[in-house]
Here is the input.
Amino acid sequence: MKLSTRTFAVAAIILIALNLFVYLWWANRPFVVLRPADVNREIVAGLEAESQRIQRMLDSACTSPEMQAYRRGEVGPLLRAQPGSGVSVSSQSPNTGPNASLTTTPEASASPSSPSASAPATPPPAESRPAPPEQTSTKILPQEQLVSLLEAATVRVLVFSEQMKYLGHGTGFFIDKNTVVTNRHVIEAGKKFAITSSFLGKQPLPVKLIAATKDSEYTNPDFAVLRGDTVPATVRPLAISTQPQLLQTVVASGFPSSEIRVDANIVTPNTVFSQGEVSVLQRQPNNMVLVLHTARIATGSSGGPLVNRCGNVVGVNTFIGAQTDKFSDRSLYALSGNALRSFLDQSGVSYTKIANDCSSDPKN
Here is the structure.
């Protein structure tokens, strides 16, 4: 069938009109140029804003007058490291990299503006608390005495940069009149350290690092030893026992962040206690034993003591394992007393040994 001239002309006009419409739409469409530099600037600005927001949240946790004065160096200052002072410790922690090194802090000195820094701190009045036991024992302690003992032995470990910027905290405990044990991973990011507790008084006490394990890798020994020169004579060191027994009752003491954040005194908060049982003893390829238990610990509890009901250390709380699914399980780990004993013996640090004969539960 042949098209008439009229039909052909109409078809041509329609095609031309359609093409003209498409052309005009394409020529006038919104056009946005995505420049990589602009996108990068937006991303960086967003990340910087989020970093500043998180830093403000962290800084707000240390806004008390006492902590601000300490960070400015007005209370109990620490000297800057002098050449040749301190002990260098190789670090292979994921936080610092395999080639990083950690130098211990120098000795603390008294400040002319702080009389309390030149003499041992005075603990708060003891009328409100029962006296802790004078000597270690394998007999079960009454609940009040156990609490008093752990309050007199457990400290909060504060970690600072060289410029006294607050980096974080953990927990530690006395093993001698002026010697504190904690985890290496608690202090390895810092350069200067202090300890504090409601028992020690209002002023943080400067301490120096004297020994640490070679790293803080998972399933490896993770210990550090701090020592101070102005520690009150009334502190109570804890004796170090061996690894606990399965289903043995254990008590954890420390300063978990989730609990102390609401304490009225953020510099010297109250010690937090929890009780549980030993679930399993897991021997690692290097023969170190991990103690899994049910006494509640959280971030900030690292380095705190895990004791039996006689008040003797059977482990050092170290880390929390958790699954990420909606049925998340939490496993609470401590390094055994045997592992701590071995480290202290190798480091030449004095402490009191005691047998783990505290196996029965008190009737409260």
Notes: Confidence is low (pLDDT under 50) at residues 72-127, 322-330. Residues 60-108+138-347 form a domain with the Thrombin, subunit H fold (CATH 2.40.10.120).
